Amino acid sequence: MKKFLPHILGLAVLDFVLIWLWVKSINPDPSVSIYLIFLVPIVIGINLLIAGIMYFVKRDLVKLFLINSIISACLMVYLFDEGVGRYLNERLDEWEFQKADTTFSISTGKNPIHLVFHTQQILILQ
User: Fold this and answer.
1) For the segment 22-32, what is each residue's pLDDT rounded down to a tens digit?
2) Helix (H) or strand (E) holding 117
3) CA dihedral angle for residue 23, residue 27, residue 31, residue 33, rounded to 10 degrees
4) Residues 94, 105 contacting (CB under 8 angstroms)
5) Which of 21, 53, 105, 122 has a C-alpha 20 to 30 A away from that of 67?
6) By the 8 A CB rule, do 24 and 39 touch?
C-alpha cells in the first residue's frame, strides 16, 4: 500500500485539476445539478475502464484505478458543488424584500454590504 500512496495522491491531484478546469469552464448553475446523477457514474466508469485495460497490461495498477474511481467520484461531487456555489456568489449580489410598508434592499457588490430601506406612508383623506 505504501508504494501506491504517491501514485494515488498524484492521480487525485490530476483528477482535481482536470475536474476543476472542466467545472470552471461550464460554470454550472443550480439548475444543472441533476447532471451529477450522470457525471459520477461516468467518472467511475472511466476509471473502471482504465482498471480493466490495466488488468491486461500491468496488473499491479488495477488496485490504483479502483481506488481512484472512488476518489475521483468524490472530487466530482465536491468540485461541482463548489462550482455551483461560485456561480451563486457571482450572480447574487442584491436582494430585496418587503415587510409591511417598508422595502428592504441588501446589496453586496464589490463594496462593503449596504442595507437600504424605504418606507411608504399612505395619506388617507376622509
Assistant:
1) 999 998 988 88
2) strand 114-119
3) 10
4) yes
5) 21
6) no
